[in-house]
Amino acid sequence: MSDVTIPGGRIRSFVERIENIDTELAELNEQKKEVFSEAKGEGFDVKILKEIIKLRKQDQDERDERESLLDLYMRAMETAPPEKTAKAA
To answer: What Pfam families does the annotation carry (predicted)?
Structure first.
């Protein structure tokens, strides 16, 4: 047998803390769903609310770059002539 001791109490402490955090996360996710449901019930578009949340997480430079690229791509598509699609054989 090995003389190495494994601190079981310390391991249990970590595991229980992680389990508690998982429980808290599940509760928070449930609360988040309830808020989205409430907003939907009041006529708000949940997809748009999620997009706003996503944008607010970005810093201003990142947001500006994304909007510039989106605008550039949209203008490129609008000005490009339609491509002829190849027919399947």
So the answer is: GapR_DNA-bd
pLDDT band at 6; cut points 50, 70, 90 = confident
Q: How far apart are CA 28 and CA 34, in angstroms?
A: 10
Q: Which residues contact 66 (CB under 8 A, 6 or more apart)?
A: 58
Q: Which residue has the tokens 């000005």?
A: 79
Same domain? For 55 and 68 the reply is yes
Task: Please indicate, yes or no, whether the overall pTM of this predicted structure exceeds 0.90.
Answer: no
49 and 31 both lie in a single domain? no
DSSP label of 88: P
Its domain, for residue 61, covers 45-78
**Residue whose entry in the numeric block shows the structure tokens 């939907």:** 40
